[in-house]
Amino acid sequence: MNNSTTNELAGAGLYFDQPEQFEDRALALDTGTPWAAAGYSGGPLRNGVNQLPRIYSWETTGVPNFSFGYVPAGGQYLKKFSWNLTDNLTTIYRTHTIKVGAYAEQTRNNQVTLGSDANGNILFDRYEGCLPNLQAPAPASTTLSASSLGNTVANFLAGCPGGYSQSSTDPSIDMYFNSLEFYATDQWKVSPKLTLTFGIRFSHLPPWTDSHGIGAAVWDPTKYNPIQPDVVGTMNAETSTWPGISWHKLNSSIPVAGVGTRALFYSPRVGIAYDLYGNGKSVFRGGWGAYRSRDSYNVVAAALTTSIDLVDHGIVGNDSCTLDQLMNYSDTPKGTQVLPCGGDNGGTTFSFSSGSTPIAPGTASVNAVDPKDNEQPVTYNYNLTLDQRLPFGSTFRSPMSETRARTLSLWAIPQTRCIACKTRM
Fold this sequence. Notes:
It is a single chain. The protein is built from four helices and 19 strands. It is mainly β. The strands form four sheets. Strands 1, 3, 4, 9, 10, 11, 14, 15, 18 and 19 form a ten-stranded antiparallel beta sheet that branches. The chain has a five-stranded mixed beta sheet with strand order 2-5-8-16-17, with no helix packed on it. Strands 6-7 form a two-stranded antiparallel sheet.
């Protein structure tokens, strides 16, 4: 603009598309296979997925892994784009170098769940034992014992799995965020020896938002009745009826993102540079700053899976269930149909609801965000450095620094009886 003022305007954009599909999907389907003939298609959830399930073992020998996650008919995909625009103005006024600027960004992530368990995930090991198949409850005086073959291949051939998990659906999760930030810094040369820097950044950081307008699920403990803690054990497949769980489409007062946001986050920074003797050979530098980022995509994506009715179902140890018992979601045997898990003694410890996506009570996991959480991660850093020029063109440097972070998301760390999927530290 002139010999003391410059302006820099820059923009950038990125689009990423990663399609993935089977070359011949028919080879991965259970159509015409003994699996479908046995009535196992769709797994115990009967979710309409007819792709063969994953079969795997932790053993190094024995059953070979058949570990294909669910791939929809149209293929699975990742579609991401991001654009940003930056404007920086720099001017020199006497002993001050002043910079001001603005930054705008939009990032979007549209994808299905890669490696989804919608087709079921079956584990075989040498340790599991299974109770015999029964078509009628055993007399109360009868004690049934599980037979353990002690061999992975034998358990595989006998249909005695060591674990099972399945997702109800494989929905598309399409979310985006916008960012708008402003900053100003002043580098002030106080004297030939001393330079001070002051700066601040203002950030408007709305959370990841569902582009469908359905909204991320939130947890409201006031809607949960602690007098009836077993109510979770009677949840059906319709997540909109689960106690304490709600989202924007059910309650318009809840933001689409599930959480609110602050108008601005403030990130101040200060710095100092001091030439001890004025000859540039011994210089002390130091600084402190706050740096904002945002929660990862997975924090809100996990809560969104609840509102779009993605339910993860799983059992460990399998309650000594055979595949016949596991896949039999009806409490009443029909013809040669065996009793479901728990039905051998007249109970229904593994009974399913009668919805279109039945789910076993007490075995579901659900994700939600805290509607009162309007924070974003922040990192505080300070550093002190002494540079001393030495003979032969070498330099001795003595640094000290410390970094601390607050309001980080711990969503990936398992929590005992965790209900909200974000924890602050």
